Amino acid sequence: MTDQFTVKKATAGREGILIALGSSLTIMGSVMVAPMLPKMGQEFGPVTPDAGTLLPLAVTGPALAIALFAPIAGWISDRVGRKAMLILATFLYAILGVLPALLTDLNDIVISRLLFGCAEAVIMTCCTALIADYWHGEERFKFVNFQVVSIGIIGSIFFVLGGVMGEESWRTPFYLYLGPLLLIPFMVRILWEPKKNSGHLPPVDPNAHTAFAPLIIGYLMILGGMVLNFIVPVQAPALLVAIGVTSTTKIGLSAGLGLLATLGGSLTWPLLRRLFGLSGCNALLMALLAVGLWLLANAETYNQVLFAVCIHGLGAGLMVPNLMASVMNALPDSVRGRGIGGFTSALYLGQFISPIVVGTIIAMTQTDLPSAIVYLAIASAVVAAIWLLSRLLGGKSQPLNKESAA
Questions:
Q1: What is the pTM of this model?
Q2: Spatial contact of 231 and 296, defined as CB atoms under 8 Å apart
Q3: Which CATH number is associated with domain 2-199+210-396?
């Protein structure tokens, strides 16, 4: 047992880095496309019926595909394993990701993006499940945080890179999706299938059961949180154009800075989790999202937008690790893939419906985009107050379940 534990710890660094890189592919799925929407609109708008509906689907369509397919991916991974599915999905991610650069019909581009989202669903579900499979207790929380930090860094880089490369043509950034092919040989060599290497893992508790209350709360929180979180990449370009900023580089930089700001939240999450517990962190992150959205809606200059997305990003950086960790701990080994698939589904469903929610608010209130964002900021503040009240009435909630004490 000691030798097995030594082998496990010796390879954890390589495994953690590889899984973090794989997880980061999902943020690349949307961040490189959002800055391209104005130029795609110029090309397809005059010649494509319903271009106004189809263009946003180029960004949010993969999120819908992930939301629908992630539970299925999790169910399959519980039966056939994670490694092979992850490798195949990474290959399909690269092939489907580059297709829009070669297609000339907007409908075909949207279809390719939906299929691309299915590959993303498998990648995100398998990577997150592997973290829960490989590591336990505090080690698991460390790698959850490492995953989120890596996504923030890589997403920030590619948001800016996509904007810069898109100055000449909106098609150019799509070739970056071929890069993940380089990860496949390392996945084959370094990753291992938990079911075939059970000696590397702690013994399975036959009495373990799903903790439904924290699981459902986690699903609802990530759903609503991503509605608020995705306002920046989807709506910020329109707000920037409204104040006279049209450069794709500047648009990409603003959203990239917001993603980079998530690092602040992610890096401070371990300390805040120990100080405030689960309820306190939920209250704080929802308050930060509320303040960031209010500032964004009322921004009149480019610098004010940058400040707003930074505050918003801090809340987003706290949200994913805080909710993902609690969901992981609520799931026993036997249904971990399915449970994490449900979390992934809720996460990306929130992304997909974010512009729908904003549009619905605009239609119902007969108002403009900034006012709709203010309404959502108020809703976020109300949820923050509820969590704060829960924290004050219930005392410091424990962020870790019984597993962390082991």
A1: 0.74
A2: yes
A3: 1.20.1250.20
